[in-house]
Amino acid sequence: MTTPSAAIPAFKQAKAGPALTASLLVTLIAAATIAGAWFFQLVLEILPCPLCLEQRYAYYLAIPLGALTALAARSGAPRPLLLAGLAILALATLANAGLGAYHSGVEWGFWKGPTDCSGPVVNLGNAGDLFSRLDTVKVVRCDEVQWRFLGLSLAGYNVLISLLMAAIAAWGFVRTAKRS
């Protein structure tokens, strides 16, 4: 009796090496980064703007997908499954780097950001509710940097971290694809 991985060469089981290493690294980096974002928000009270929150989506994808890909690599899953997981990780983190670069450009004034976080306030409603809403609403603007270190904002660091994760996932993809 032959198994699918023995009968079809494309479904040959991949060795855990680069797929496991890359997916674990991406998972750890993503978890550390999102923990840092929550630290800035909850402890240092640096509230995220709408673009900041959108940049977190890639991390919320990368953590479980990276862990699942690592688990699959550890258990000897077929190579196409590992390649798919690594490809999704690479594409998601690369797209996140693009979103972070866009946000950085908004912060530096290179282009305008979305109107919900960098444009004028619209639709204030009726005057009676205005004062009660002003006491409860804090608008965090996407075009105002709340924190910088070495000249980079959190969006700028997101670009660098996302590019690093994309490079690691791409490395894992290429090395896993080349393994025999």
From TrEMBL:
Coiled coil: none annotated. One of its GO terms (molecular function) is protein-disulfide reductase activity. The chain crosses the membrane at residues 20-44, 56-73, 80-102, 154-174. It is a multi-pass membrane protein. Keywords: Membrane, Transmembrane, Transmembrane helix. One of its GO terms (biological process) is protein folding. Its main location: membrane. GO terms for cellular component: membrane. It is found in: Membrane. This is Disulfide bond formation protein B.
